Amino acid sequence: MKKLSAIFNGREYAVQFGGLRGNKVRFLMDGDPVEAGIVEIGGDSFLVETGNRVFRIDAGKSLQEIYVNGSRAAIDLVEEGSAQQGHDSSTGRAAKFITASMPGKVVKVYASENTSVKKGEHLIVLEAMKMENEIRSPSDGVIREVFVKEGEVVEGGDKLIEFDL
């Protein structure tokens, strides 16, 4: 199961996708099982039915933006495992690495070395599959090293940033 953390209108949800069968998707949201029917109604628009409720979902300009029944909703998705913890034997400090979850092109780098960042702060914008994906800080920390520059192409799993915890 793919595990994600989704922040929807200021509330964080733990989401774990179970799979897609036909037009039904199964997932856990904060541990509660959910099954939803999905029907594509054209382009990037879908009807999603769960229980006795139906929502129209329209894709926005990026992975962080959708429209639910015509109202804009901002969503942050953080794939579990995209931040890997390690240990620097030269300093004895714990370190965390942010890696690319898929191949793409680095569009913008907000992070700079030796600066403090807060959880959720913008670090990098990565373009993948014609969509811009904003990578945000998974925790408070200090940026030790930035491994990429704007315009670079990265592969899934490539290190992007190293943090001191």
Number of domain modules: 2
How many helix segments? Answer: 0
Strand segment tally: 17
Largest sheet: 8 strands, antiparallel, barrel
The whole-angstrom Rg is: 18 Å
Text of the CATH class of the largest domain: Mainly Beta
Q: What is the CATH architecture descriptor of the largest domain?
A: Beta Barrel
Structure description:
This protein has 165 residues and is mostly beta strands. The chain is 0% helix and 65% strand. The chain has no helices and 17 strands. An 8-stranded antiparallel beta barrel has the order 1-2-3-4-5-6-7-8. Strand 6 and strand 7 form a beta hairpin. It is elongated. About 6% of the residues have low confidence.
In short:
The chain is an all-beta fold and 165 residues long. The chain has strands spanning 2-8, 11-21, 24-29, 32-42, 45-50, 53-59, 65-68, 71-79, 83-87, 94-99, 104-109, 116-117, 122-128, 131-136, 141-146, 153-154, 159-164. 0% of the residues lie in helices and 65% in strands.
List the helices and strands and how they pair.
Layout: E1 2-8, E2 11-21, E3 24-29, E4 32-42, E5 45-50, E6 53-59, E7 65-68, E8 71-79, E9 83-87, E10 94-99, E11 104-109, E12 116-117, E13 122-128, E14 131-136, E15 141-146, E16 153-154, E17 159-164
Antiparallel strand pairs: 1-2, 1-8, 2-3, 3-4, 4-5, 5-6, 6-7, 7-8, 9-10, 10-17, 11-13, 11-16, 12-15, 13-14, 15-17
Key structural traits:
OB fold (Dihydrolipoamide Acetyltransferase, E2P); 165 residues; five-stranded antiparallel beta sheet; mainly beta; eight-stranded antiparallel β-barrel; elongated
